[in-house]
Amino acid sequence: MKRGSRISTVVGTAAVITLALAPVAEANWSSSITAASVGFESRRWSDELYSQVKFTNCKTDALATQSTDVRIWADISLQPDEAYDNKTFTACFGGGTSNGEWTDLPSGKRDYYFKLAKIAGSTFGPQLTVSTVSVDTTKADG
């Protein structure tokens, strides 16, 4: 085998291994948030048309308004990410669950994430802790 062919084979094999090990965006997942500030980004998930985000048992160190604003973003490679509408969560404070549904997402699988846009009505300062964060994409797509 010629040296150039061997190098091509090694580089090609390395590319396949790299793709196989690349992180995959999960569809449905649950987690928690501890002491996050505005701008916090969730992990990514893959979906189309519909996504639901739920927060259960929220707490903030702010003495003012007990709320947090959550915004969904489409993760677009090599371009600015695309933002979707903002949802204000209030029911999760005091042990309840807040639910945000985004039904206007485009068709075709894309990776999404949410960002904390405001905490207690502010874009800086307070931190948010959420006992359970759930992302659900199981509503019928299409």
Topology:
Layout: H1 3-21, E1 29-36, E2 45-47, E3 51-60, E4 68-75, E5 82-89, E6 97-102, E7 110-119, E8 128-136
Antiparallel strand pairs: 1-8, 2-7, 3-6, 3-8, 4-5, 4-7
Please describe what this structure looks like.
By secondary structure, this protein is mostly beta strands. Helices cover 13% and strands 44% of the residues. It is built from one helix and eight strands. It has one helix spanning 3-21; strands at residues 29-36, 45-47, 51-60, 68-75, 82-89, 97-102, 110-119, 128-136. Strands 1-8-3-6 form a four-stranded antiparallel β-sheet, with no helix packed on it. β4 and β5 form a beta hairpin. Mean pLDDT is 84; it is low at 7-23.
List keywords for this structure.
about 140 residues; globular; four-stranded antiparallel sheet
In short:
With 142 residues, the chain is mainly β.
Cα radius of gyration in angstroms:
19 Å
Give the helix/strand class.
Answer: mainly beta
Taken as a percent bin, the fraction of beta residues is 35-45%
Element order: H for helix, E for strand = HEEEEEEEE
Low-pLDDT stretches are 7-23
Estimate percent helicity: 10-25%
Mean pLDDT rating: 84
- Globular, elongated, flat, extended or rod-shaped: what is the shape? globular
Query: Main beta sheet, described?
Result: 4 strands, antiparallel
Number of strands: 8
Roughly how many Å apart are the termini?
51 Å
